[in-house]
Write a structure and sequence with these properties.
By secondary structure, this protein is mostly helical. The protein has one domain. The protein is built from 6 helices and no strands. It starts with a helix and ends in a 14-residue tail after the last helix.
Length: 155
């Protein structure tokens, strides 16, 4: 294997381990904690807002001082913003489905993957159906699945 490939794998592994450890330590992998955070009209638990705020306090100066100035990531991948600027039906539909799934399950994809090591059957089922949803969405975007809505896509 080439040195740059090994370096990219190492960077991804370190980043993934840091992310996963942060998710577990902050309890963002606990669906009860996440559901309590999302329950703004009931017994709201704001502690995850502090986790997100803490992450932003660390990330923001690094972004502005290091990342924003770079053309490539540490792994060598190009850094570029999306060229899509339009809020369209697929964006709204996808965001809505993501939010509904997150709210019903109490899992966001990142924390769910971080929780896989627990071998909790609920998490395993969530991951399987999340992957199935991703595959169906890709088929839909490729025009292979009939949609209930007519969405004009520009290329």
């Amino acid at each position: 294997m080439h040195y740059s490939s090994l370096f990219r794998i190492a960077v991804a592994a370190v980043a993934g381990l840091l992310f996963g450890a942060g998710m577990v330590i902050s309890e963002m992998v606990d669906p009860n904690k996440v559901t309590a955070f999302l329950n703004v009209t009931g017994a709201w638990d704001p502690s995850l807002a502090f986790v997100m705020g803490g992450a932003l306090l660390v990330f923001t100066p690094i972004y502005h001082g290091v990342i924003k100035k770079r053309q490539t990531a540490v792994s060598g991948e190009p850094l570029q913003l999306s060229h899509k600027k339009k809020v369209d039906a697929p964006l709204i539909l996808g965001a809505s489905l993501f939010g509904i799934g997150w709210g019903l399950a109490g899992f966001c994809p990142g924390p769910a993957v971080s929780s896989l090591s627990s071998m909790n059957p609920v998490i395993l089922v969530f991951i399987v159906f999340m992957l199935l949803g991703m595959m169906l969405a890709n088929q839909y975007l490729a025009g292979r699945v009939c949609s209930l809505f007519y969405v004009k896509r520009g290329h």
